[in-house]
Amino acid sequence: MQSASEQSQAAEPPARPARPGPPDHDYPDHWEADVVLRDGGTARIRPITADDADRLVSFYEQVSDESKYYRFFAPYPRLSAKDVHRFTHHDFVDRVGLAATVGGEFIATVRYDRINDRGLPASAPADEAEVAFLVQDAHQGRGVASALLEHIAAVARERDIRRFAAEVLPANTKMIKVFTDAGYTQKRSFEDGSVRLHLDLEPTDRSLAVQRAREQRAEARSVQRLLTPRSVAVVGAGRAPGGVGRTVLRNLIGAGFAGRVYAVNAALSDGDGATEFDGVPAHPSVGAIGEPVDLAVVAVPAERVPEAVADCGEHGVRGLVVLSAGYAESGAAGRERQRQLVRQARSYGMRIIGPNAFGIINTSADVRLNASLAPQMPAAGRIGLFTQSGAIGIALLAGLHRRGAGLSSFISAGNRADVSGNDFLQHWYDDPGTDVVLLYLESIGNPRKFTRLARRTAAVKPVVVVKGARHSGSAPPGHRVPVTRIPHATVSALLRQAGVIRVDTVTELVDAGLLLAAQPLPAGPRVAILGNSESLGLLTYDACLTEGLRPLRPLDLTTAAEPADFREALAAALADETSDAVVVTAIPWVGENGATEFGDGEVLAAALREAVASAAVPTKPVVVVHVEMGGLAEALAVATSTRPAAPGRSATTSGPRQAGPPAEAGPTAPEPGRDGSGSGPAAAGPGPVASAPVASGPAPAVSGPGPVVSGPDPVTSGATPPDRSAPPAAIPSYPAAERAVRALAEAVRYGQWRRQAADPGRVPEFEDIDEAGAAALIERVLGAAEADPRGVTLGTEQAGELLGRYGIAVLPTLPAPTPDAAVAAAGRLGYPVALKTTAPHLRHRPDLGGVRLDLATEEQLRTAYAELTEVLGKPEEIQPVVQAMVPRGVDTVVRSAIDPAVGAVLSFGLSGAASELLGDTAHRLVPATDRDVSELVRSLRTAPLLFGWRGSAPVDTPALEEVLLRVSRLVDDHPEVVAVSLEPVVVAPRGLSVLGATVRLAPPAPRTDLGPRSLPSY
């Protein structure tokens, strides 16, 4: 067996005698998967069938004698016909073989054979199998065997195999390491000159951690290969200037790309001799280049893309940026064309950005890649920007440029058929050149994975997201996403739980992102306000209160204040331990002669930077709110970072160009040419570029608000002393108090999340939980002959039994179909009692008068019964029941449900029409920790009712939090529990009572986030 780094192969005797077995099963196409390997390339894993005999023989011939020896423990130069038959004929139950393929050819194989306790061939119920691997030498070191092990283990678990056994020669240390590094529980022994390994295939926390770490490294590497090519070919560059391909070619050259650039035009011929476009060699095909090509930018009509992809794949291109339009955004035929594109590219091990993409940019000084339709290169900086929309990408590039911001990398992925925001989160997570991640998303293809990756990334650097298409009810054309039943507000709450900074507009995206990139995180919500306008200070004060911050009384420097006064006041505020952040407000001061004293803001900017630089340790963020202060925003924005630039990356430059004048509107992206670069709208890519959004070099002085991205470490609270040799840090500035404070509030909330994330809490172990008993009950209900395969809602007794096994007691409810039955029920329960209706249209609707409380006598009970039936309907219509009274308290609702897009969600709110009308419900992902449920209870707007509002007695919130934790455990332990509703849960000053419960069971949907690594299927 062999992984990317291993040399090869677990041993297996050549061939055992055939034995009778179960009939062959249908081909298991759900075992097919595309995977990203350690080096960033891709391979396809699929079952081996009888049609693969020739492929297997060809594969084996390319394996070295040493690898064959490790596989068979003896020289084995060729496979016999019997071997080929055995290794290609499987029943997909007791005998399974998988192959990893690239370009349709085998590069590695793995197989298992079910065995009994004596090591002989067996069928179920035997639950052990012998496993063996073989990896072609040319592909050793790519992580192939590690990926195959994950997939063959998942197949084995599906077939009720719980353990793998393997024999390995002691010299084959790399193969042994594959097993030991996988994270499974294992045993190892030395017998007859070989190492005997036994792996328990039940996933463990360690095996899952290993799998996800490998996934991160592989997917990050696949993105890195796209962003750092050594050579780029533009496929579809026209002979004449103009057209999408020629535009990208010009942008690559203009950015000063550090590698080799080639133009490809199918209309050229080998007889054309040496041909150049814009000074770079032009060829009729990628194959004609004769040199390795790492990245191809495809700008040909959609109908010609398959030919271009084949040309690239057959000549070793590693990745594609497909600008061509005419795919899933154009209808059913386009969707099928997009599926074929992804399948074709993956068959060659290539990854795709697009189709219908705007392109990618890497500003690193040693790369300088602008493989996009953006006419000019952005300034280098430390923000990573991902968009799904070319139009929004143009707007964000232009907005960041106006704000004096620089980027580390930019991606506009179009239909994101393959590479998505998840892949770039994997890359930016440990990219030393990126401090802040900005994402514009119109859909989330794998929400569970996105939430997991965002939480991990947010623990080390801010992730700011604006979500488009929030209320359309459907994904944008071209985007494949799971359907969600939960409202947008719930999704936002769950993303915030994961540490994502959720904003509503692209303006807020830039506002928050640039503050986070330029300033340290605030240590708390206390805000000092100072400036020369009392009115602007009060507006800032009010905005702070609106955003939940704790502003100090504004310090009015008066309109007579000079820059030196600002400098002294800001220095004092930075040294004052009673504040965590500072907002400076400024308006022009007009002298008697009508001239300003601030030199159009430049003098004031210098004074503010001097005050920040004089701080002993820059632990407080500073933002500026200005009104018509000419030059102030620009002067504040041109400052550079206090931190030394990362190796190979300049903080202020992007390539060889020098700073120039402000960027003017650039040329629009031309239509495709008609001489080999494509014709008609099919090749137009994402559309014309309206303006030159960015300029290379230091951020030029342009009008408008101007935070910058370079500054103290945004993922610390300024613990690293500033580099005094560098110019002072840039200070973000905003034209309105509300915008500055909203961005600051996001930084405060994110800083609080970061501090809490260091101690996320724990999922408690309750000793009284009967997990096995609950599982047996669930299996019995779902296994009943009369059970609906779509799901079953438990009856009152079964729901109470299931909840009881998790320590959740539901108050007994007795039916009362007649007045006499109601009296008998009250006699069993004891007075006083409650009489209430349970008909679906009346349940949980106290406003309709369907509940009578504190009925202390039989007479009161009969009277209440008569009133209910007279007003609301006959007993069979209103379904009355009797319950014992419980101590008074606050009525609450606890729910949990499985959403196909985001997984299990725990919800909490107060009962009643007012909470429902206001949407005052809080949510957390399952499994919830003790910290999660504590925050859940306190995050409601109506939460004060639980803590003694207006002199009322505080209720027993610890008991409430325990119920929330128990519900979370139930849903997490048993994915068959697809919905739980406890309503009402009456929380008293001491204890609580669950008065009603509904539980729904259904066969669980497959968990795509827990299986072996794979790319989204097409």
Can you give a write-up of this model?
With 1018 residues, the protein is of the alpha/beta class. The protein is 31% helix and 20% strand. The protein contains 27 helices and 39 strands. α11 (421-429) runs parallel beside α12 (447-458), α15 (534-546) packs across α19 (737-757) and α26 (930-938) crosses α27 (957-973). The radius of gyration is 33 Å and the shape is flat. 49% of the residues are buried.
Low-confidence stretches: 1-22, 639-728
How many H/I helical runs? 27
Helix/strand class = alpha/beta
Strand content: 15-25%
Helix content: 25-40%
**Largest β sheet strand count, sense and barrel closure:** 8 strands, mixed
Structure, briefly:
This protein is an alpha/beta fold and 1018 residues long. It contains 27 helices and 39 strands. The strands form six sheets. It has an eight-stranded mixed beta sheet, sandwiched between helices. Strands 11-12-10-9-13-14-15 form a seven-stranded mixed beta sheet, sandwiched between helices.
Write the layout of secondary structure elements.
Elements: E1 33-36, E2 42-47, H1 53-61, H2 65-72, H3 81-88, E3 95-102, E4 105-115, E5 128-135, H4 144-158, E6 163-168, H5 173-181, E7 185-191, E8 194-200, H6 205-227, E9 231-235, H7 244-254, E10 260-264, E11 275-277, E12 280-283, E13 295-298, H8 305-314, E14 319-322, H9 332-347, E15 351-353, E16 359-362, E17 369-372, E18 380-387, H10 390-402, E19 407-412, H11 421-429, E20 436-441, H12 447-458, E21 463-467, H13 488-497, E22 501-503, H14 506-518, E23 526-531, H15 534-546, E24 550-551, E25 555-556, H16 563-575, E26 581-586, H17 602-614, E27 622-626, H18 632-637, E28 733-734, H19 737-757, H20 771-783, E29 792-793, H21 796-804, E30 814-815, H22 819-829, E31 833-837, E32 851-855, H23 858-872, H24 875-878, E33 880-884, E34 890-899, E35 903-910, H25 913-918, E36 921-925, H26 930-938, H27 957-973, E37 977-987, E38 992-994, E39 997-1001
Parallel strand pairs: 5-6, 9-10, 9-13, 10-12, 13-14, 14-15, 18-19, 18-20, 20-21, 21-22, 23-24, 23-25, 23-26, 26-27, 27-28
Antiparallel strand pairs: 1-2, 2-3, 3-4, 4-5, 6-8, 7-8, 11-12, 16-17, 16-19, 29-39, 30-33, 31-32, 31-33, 34-35, 34-37, 35-36, 37-38, 37-39
